[in-house]
Amino acid sequence: MATTAPLPPAPAAEPRRWRDIALLAGLFALVLGGLASLALATGWAETKAQLMKLGLPQVAALLALSLANYLARGLRWHLFARRLGLATTLAQNLRHFLGGFAMSVTPGRVGELIRMRWLRRETGWALERTAPLALLDRAGDLAAMAVLLALAVALASSGIAFALPVAALALVAAVAATRPRLLAGLTTLAWRVTGFAPRPMARLRAAARSLAAFSSLPVAATALGLGLLGWAAEGVAFHLLLGWLGADIGLAKAMAIFTFSTLAGGLTGAPGGVGGAEAAMVALLAIEGIPLDVSVPATAIIRVTTLWFAIGVGLAVFPLAERRSLGR
């Protein structure tokens, strides 16, 4: 009886890992270079004076609020995983969720699908069975930020009413992305029109139909509540930061600017919204009369303590998640 030769081991992922690190470093240097140029143009001494207003307690508070965001959204991921039928623990799901942040600055955040690879190794579930988790996580963020932005704009006294169409668009996209019949119908239509790849299309259709498990009101309401709690924590952090820098514009307006800028950065398609989010934040603060010697350090600090802190947490958890997924 003929035997099948064992497959050769997969090539090491070291070159890809170094490429990702180089991408992270390049993006970070690009953003810092742009903000430093603005700081120099407006007076480095003034910018430095603003930065010196913050001590370790203030920085710790900003990081703690960001961590509250990650944990709330991690609990939402756990809720989705259990609803899908995965027998994973809370610790497992938090490890996958936080470790995925290491890939947040890949274009469109597609690198965060590394979580699906970890799930496949640990549970045996194929990608088409776990793919709804990634879609629901993204849709949950869009829905929470849309609601938060709309509430903040409604409560703000003036200034950022033009953000309402963005909130409406984000909410519509979030709802559409979680409708099983709509997505299954679009997949079927795409196959009938193109005739392309019937087997992958069938898998996509099956994945779309599995979204029905998440359509109940209690699940949707809990997911939305956790998303609101998480993103509101970072909005509060931005409000506190502006106050510490002597530019208190009110909680509602600060939260609206932070949320709108984050959404705007995501719409650019740039990795992590880098560049677009910073530009939108500085511009909106300027509309509110905040000078560049305050808006530039405020933008730099809030992005470091939100996006880049998340990447740092992801890089710290990533090796553990990789080892555990391999049974080590």
UniProtKB/TrEMBL annotation:
Classification via InterPro entries: L-PG_synthase/AglD
GO CC annotation: plasma membrane
Main location: membrane
Transmembrane segments: 21-45, 51-72, 142-164, 211-232, 238-260, 299-321
Protein's UniProt keywords contain Transit peptide: no
Protein keywords: Cell membrane, Membrane, Transmembrane, Transmembrane helix
Topological category with respect to the lipid bilayer: Multi-pass membrane protein
Localization in the cell: Cell membrane
PANTHER family documented for this protein: UPF0104 MEMBRANE PROTEIN MJ1595 (PTHR39087:SF2)
Protein known as: Integral membrane protein
Source organism of the structure: Oceanicola granulosus (strain ATCC BAA-861 / DSM 15982 / KCTC 12143 / HTCC2516)
